[in-house]
Amino acid sequence: MSAWLSVGLPALSASVAVLEADTVLVGQWLVSRPLVVGPLVGWLAGDPVLGAGLGALVEVFCLEELPVGSVMPPNGAVAAATAVLLSAGPSGIPPALSLPVGLALGALHGRVEARVRSWRAALTARALEAVVTEGVVPWRRLWARSVGVHLAATALFVYAAVALLGPTLDRALTWLPGSVSPGLERVWQAAPFLALGSLLQRLSR
Amino acid sequence: MTAVAAPRTLPAGERETLFWRSMLIQAGWNFEGMQNLGFLYALEPGLARVHRDPERRRRAQMRHLGFFNTEPHMAGFALGATLVLEEDVARATEDADEAAAVQRVERLKRALGSALAALGDPFYWGTLRPATAAWTLVAWTALWTLGAPSPVAFGTALGLAAFNAPALWTRWVGPRLGYERGEGLPAELKRLGWPEKALLVRRIGLAGAALAAAAALAVPPFGGTPSWANAAVLAGAFGLRLRGHGSLGVYSALALASAVLSAAGA
Questions:
Q1: If both were cysteines, with which of A4, A46, A96, B55 could A188 make a disulfide (CB 3.0 to 4.6 Å apart)?
Q2: Which residue, among B23, B26, B30, B217, would best test binding to A if mutated, counting the most A CBs under 10 Å from its CB?
Q3: What tens digit of pLDDT does each residue of B68-110 get?
Q4: pTM for this predicted structure
């Protein structure tokens, strides 16, 4: 567990943050889509099949809201990564539970992102000041700050969420009646059909 | 007889610069100026060529730190069109001419920001993304059924290529078309028929989603034993989405209900 918290999880959180930067900041090549992040994180954490399953479900659930203007739908990369890490990590949370928890964390990451976006407004003032005084904007420094703060915030968010929620959910599951798990499992089995129904509706509009 | 001006062509190397720099159009996204920092970053080498006078260049840089927002893959069109109008600003000899040229730049930028978003958002985010998601799932299932090595990796790579081929093409042709058409760009965009292309991609995506659904019902690990319950969940999810209910809410409600019923021994 300690190697997981001190080496494995920090490395995985940093990798997720780098991939997640594609969502808004760099490229938009969709390497941050859950269909990519899920299997990749699953493979790194030792369970690529679980990663693919969770990634596919998160992908479809996150397609329901479009990232237009200042709208921030649940962050698919964070949702997929945290769901996979909660299930494939040492806590071994059942995917039936890690899926909704991951999606909730993806939505919660929006709060972090909103703060970073508000903070970034100050970078416009810096750029303006640089244009007035020097005639050039120090882009490398500016991008390093803009992207660096975002990467650090996302990596920290993923690390904290998995490190805190993994053991907490694990303990909570032992308190709950044993019959709850089969109930959750039934819904998990139905999840692919729920997702595909939603995808069909999305494309038939 | 009126002379027809030859279309201006983007100087060598500038198209590549705009293409690569447009990848960072959202790197400084903020609530006040939105893509303003990325827009200036992409445009700056072009501005340096256009405005030899440092004072005019400085004024142009300050102007482009104002609000701008559009769909990121479409931003190249706005960058090219803005650059060609900046040449008119640089050519102005009188203050009044310069002010009028600046107004044209500002007007065009404002109009293109929303017009390009209105075309790009439904195409890329509303259609191409879900369509490539559906076909990625089909590719995973097909490769897995055929016993191909690494079906998820190859299927995902195919899905990424299907999204990025048009996305990168748009980013590549955008600056050139924007520069060549300038204020005539909206007419050119209309000619390109984005809504028609979106409809075609949507139909292809729908076929993929139908195939993925059929495979999920028929092929292991999810299907294999045709289940009316699974088909009912699929149809129910479709109906609930029609009525505006999100899948996350439906999943959470089902999970809670199922867990409570299980605990109650039902």
A1: A96
A2: B30
A3: 999 999 999 999 999 999 999 999 888 888 899 999 999 999 9
A4: 0.92
